[in-house]
DNA sequence: TTGCACTTTGGAATCATTCCAACTCATTCG
DNA sequence: CGAATGAGTTGGAATGATTCCAAAGTGCAA
């Protein structure tokens, strides 16, 4: 069962939604709470399952809608790997992703600003990049338990 | 109409396929030739259309098969952008991709080895990466004609 | 000539995602 | 108050890329 949003997170939600003229709804609160509760890059289906525990009537379409809305107002990031289902990630700090092909898990990799700068500098003149996506693909020995929570 | 493979390219094809115990077929030759003829990161559908000009009976399933085979034996790379159709790229040198959101076109960006090294170094211990994918997303003023062919 | 391994093919099946029309609910307006 | 408006939600249908599958085809080797 998902814990309710903290006052702080609820405000963040409310403010971000407001920037695009949208409102807080019970469904959006729960979907957002699910993302914050376990930062394991869940798929839409994962979010759906988890959110349903708290709100059995919730529909899959709504989960799609909520997540799209969050991406639109900058609350979460989409993470795509090859052709697999899209995953969602509430970590807004610049970071790369490491996809462990043994477990299928996705780990965040901190991204030092100078690396980003470095990367931007290899673009030929005339190329202006808004976003850079970096994803590693391999195996990790890391089987740490849960990084968990927020 | 697609030009036949050069002797050199045909050998490359033959050798790569051999490493995984597979054979050169007319279909594979044409699909490979299509990739080399215009290095614009075509989708499966693009390849299908272009290849059909030379071999009208070719089936879509076969194009999927060929491309998968080529990826498997290291002849070409897959390029994924968000949830769009997979694109294919015969450029094997390490490079990043720049996706121009205005035109939808994908450009290769040369990747200096030290940057790759740099990136590898930000992985925490225990993470071993086989491949790194880097994709920029933005707009370019570059409307150069065809870099084209070989 | 028979068997075997690899290929190709068209159509069916799958699966994530998008679309859509009906419905809910809160708020605004006459 | 009661209708109108509009954002949000919902379930099911539709879409689109990709995969699966079973039936043929194509050498090559025994």
Give your account of this protein's structure.
The structure is a homodimer of 150-residue chains. With 150 residues, chain A is an alpha+beta fold. The first copy, chain A, has 2 domains: 73 residues, Arc Repressor Mutant, subunit A (Orthogonal Bundle), CATH 1.10.10.10; 46 residues, 2-Layer Sandwich (Dna Ligase, domain 1), CATH 3.30.1490. The first copy, chain A, contains 5 helices and 5 strands. In chain A, the strands form 2 sheets. A 3-stranded mixed sheet of chain A has the order 4-3-5, with no helix packed on it. The first copy, chain A, has a two-stranded antiparallel sheet with strand order 1-2. In chain A, α3 crosses α4. The longest helix of chain A is centred in the N-terminal third of the chain and has 13 residues. Chains A and B meet through β4, α5 and β5 of A and β4, α5 and β5 of B. Chain A binds a DNA duplex (30 and 30 nucleotides) through α4.
Oligomer: homodimer
Q: Identify the strand order in the major beta sheet of chain A.
A: 4-3-5
Estimate what percentage of residues of chain A fall within beta strands: 15-25%
What is the H/E string of chain A?
HHHHEEEEHE
Distance between the termini of chain A: 15 Å
* Gyration radius over CA of chain A: 17 Å
The biggest beta sheet of chain A reads:
3 strands, mixed
How many domain units of chain A? 2
Helix tally of chain A? 5
CATH topology of the largest domain in chain A, which one?
Arc Repressor Mutant, subunit A
Question: Would you identify the CATH H-level superfamily of the largest domain in chain A?
Answer: Winged helix-like DNA-binding domain superfamily/Winged helix DNA-binding domain
Could you say which structural class the secondary elements and strand pairing of chain A correspond to?
alpha+beta
Beta strand count of chain A: 5
CATH architecture of the largest domain in chain A: Orthogonal Bundle
The residue fraction in helices of chain A comes out at 25-40%
